């Protein structure tokens, strides 16, 4: 029983890995389940056993990618001491994600499914996975006296909108200008929340 479960998990990981490679290379629409079958060497029945559709498979990849982003952030955060430093590093983490090879396919997928409420709700759920990390960073900053006391949830939404909204610059500016732009955004945000004289 344990061996069968392990083999099933291995098959699922193989499908996800090969599918991700294809989506990154060809995009979402241009990648077919037949392409994935050929790349894995598995039968269509085996693929559909793990993922009932190409859509389900891609959502699995987006969720896994989101979790990887959060895991990386947690590792980065643990190496920093001040909330201010963490805020600047969070911005840089966003910039680095623009080099994610799955990004283009993910945008294509989201655009093609914008009229499907169930899919958009699922994508929103993935997006909301960021919220606890933002809340923690801001709450810690208030607790240690770096940031002034305020409604943490309000600031979380503002910060998230700032980080996410700046992504439009990715389409207008060369990559090397994104880091300084995000740093400037954090400068502006901090001007609004930082205590003029940190508590002793």
UniProtKB/TrEMBL annotation:
<dbReference type="InterPro" id="IPR001647">
    <property type="entry name" value="HTH_TetR"/>
</dbReference>
<dbReference type="GO" id="GO:0003700">
    <property type="term" value="F:DNA-binding transcription factor activity"/>
</dbReference>
<dbReference type="InterPro" id="IPR009057">
    <property type="entry name" value="Homeodomain-like_sf"/>
</dbReference>
<dbReference type="InterPro" id="IPR050109">
    <property type="entry name" value="HTH-type_TetR-like_transc_reg"/>
</dbReference>
<protein>
    <submittedName>
        <fullName>Transcriptional regulator</fullName>
    </submittedName>
</protein>
<keyword id="KW-0238">DNA-binding</keyword>
<feature type="DNA-binding region" description="H-T-H motif">
    <location>
        <begin position="32"/>
        <end position="51"/>
    </location>
</feature>
<feature type="domain" description="HTH tetR-type">
    <location>
        <begin position="9"/>
        <end position="69"/>
    </location>
</feature>
<dbReference type="Pfam" id="PF00440">
    <property type="entry name" value="TetR_N"/>
</dbReference>
<dbReference type="GO" id="GO:0045892">
    <property type="term" value="P:negative regulation of DNA-templated transcription"/>
</dbReference>
<dbReference type="InterPro" id="IPR036271">
    <property type="entry name" value="Tet_transcr_reg_TetR-rel_C_sf"/>
</dbReference>
<dbReference type="InterPro" id="IPR013571">
    <property type="entry name" value="Tscrpt_reg_QacR_C"/>
</dbReference>
<dbReference type="Pfam" id="PF08360">
    <property type="entry name" value="TetR_C_5"/>
</dbReference>
<dbReference type="GO" id="GO:0000976">
    <property type="term" value="F:transcription cis-regulatory region binding"/>
</dbReference>
């Amino acid at each position: 029983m344990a061996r069968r479960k392990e083999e099933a998990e291995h098959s699922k990981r193989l499908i996800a890995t090969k599918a991700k490679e294809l989506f990154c290379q060809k995009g979402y629409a241009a990648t077919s389940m037949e392409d994935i079958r050929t790349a894995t060497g598995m039968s269509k029945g085996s693929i559909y056993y793990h993922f009932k559709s190409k859509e389900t498979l891609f959502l699995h990849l987006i969720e896994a990618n989101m979790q990887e982003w959060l895991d990386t952030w947690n590792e980065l955060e643990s190496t920093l001491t001040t909330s201010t430093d963490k805020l600047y590093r969070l911005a840089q983490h966003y910039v680095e994600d623009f080099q994610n090879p799955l990004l283009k396919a993910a945008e294509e997928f989201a655009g093609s499914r914008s009229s499907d409420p169930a899919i958009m709700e699922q994508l929103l759920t993935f997006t909301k996975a960021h919220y606890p990390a933002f809340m923690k960073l801001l709450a810690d900053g208030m607790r240690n006296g770096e940031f002034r006391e305020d409604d943490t949830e309000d600031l979380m939404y503002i910060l998230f909108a700032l980080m996410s909204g700046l992504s439009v610059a990715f389409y207008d500016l060369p990559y090397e200008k994104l880091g300084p732009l995000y740093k400037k955004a954090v400068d502006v945000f901090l001007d609004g929340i930082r205590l003029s004289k940190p508590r002793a």
